[in-house]
Amino acid sequence: MIPPPKISIVTPCFNSERTIRETLLSVQSQRYSNLEHIVIDGGSTDGTLKILQEFPQIIWVSEKDEGLYDAMNKGIARATGEFIGILNSDDCFRPDALNKVASAIQKNPEWEALFGDVVYVDGDGREIFRREEAVFDYDVLRYWLNYVNHQTLFVRKSLYQRMGTYHHHDFVHCCDYEFLLRIGREKCPVGHVPAFLVNFRYHSRGQSSDLRVIANMGRERRQIQRQYGVPARWAKILSFYGRLTRQFQKLIYRGKCDLIPGNWLLKKHRHANNDFSSNASFDKKDAPKP
Description:
Layout: E1 7-13, H1 20-28, E2 35-41, H2 48-52, E3 59-62, H3 68-78, E4 83-86, E5 92-93, H4 97-107, E6 113-121, E7 127-131, H5 138-143, E8 154-156, H6 157-163, H7 175-185, E9 190-201, H8 211-227, H9 235-254, H10 262-266
Parallel strand pairs: 1-2, 1-4, 2-3, 6-9
Antiparallel strand pairs: 4-8, 5-9, 6-7, 6-8
């Protein structure tokens, strides 16, 4: 029997007492035999550290950082696993997620990264909708937007060492998008696991549903697209091509496509000013307006 690959899970957090226990339990309940869980706390002032102390099996550190992606980079540097996954402190793995990831890794040893499907849930854990993907396509990503949920992304440590980590000094909210385009441009083999791996919490205390963050993501995405060769004058046409291609790929590989765009399903869950804390100072009153 080939031993399962060592997987490191990195959880960045900051003032996450409301949700982090559920996140930690979702990792603990995976019953995966070769697992390392690292929590990078940004200097929480609520009850987060007390909760971390209840889980002696995890590795954790608490110190000031420069936001989410800086914390992710710190965790990646500490990780000793062959593959590294990032699970935010308000999201949860679904049952048997890591065994599905490990099985895909063993069947496809050429993959340098892989990602899976995601279930969007609200603040109370109620399902909003499910999003299934088909393949990793560099052009679809750069022409349209990032459809790879980073909580379902697992990357070889050696790929991070070769390609670098997340450029948190350049971007506040789209570092993962830029990283995916970086590895896509280099034609790194990225696989897809057709399974729901993560419950992604889309709620009023998170950044993803904050309209200020969403607006800034749009600005950063356009900047990154220009950096990766998408001319502004063709952006709308290429965006349409990217959307159409993604749906065609889903039809071919999954036998279905999205009848209702995810943005429509998430609209009512978005808020002008969410209640979240960030060392990147995007939760302050002087944050950019949408």
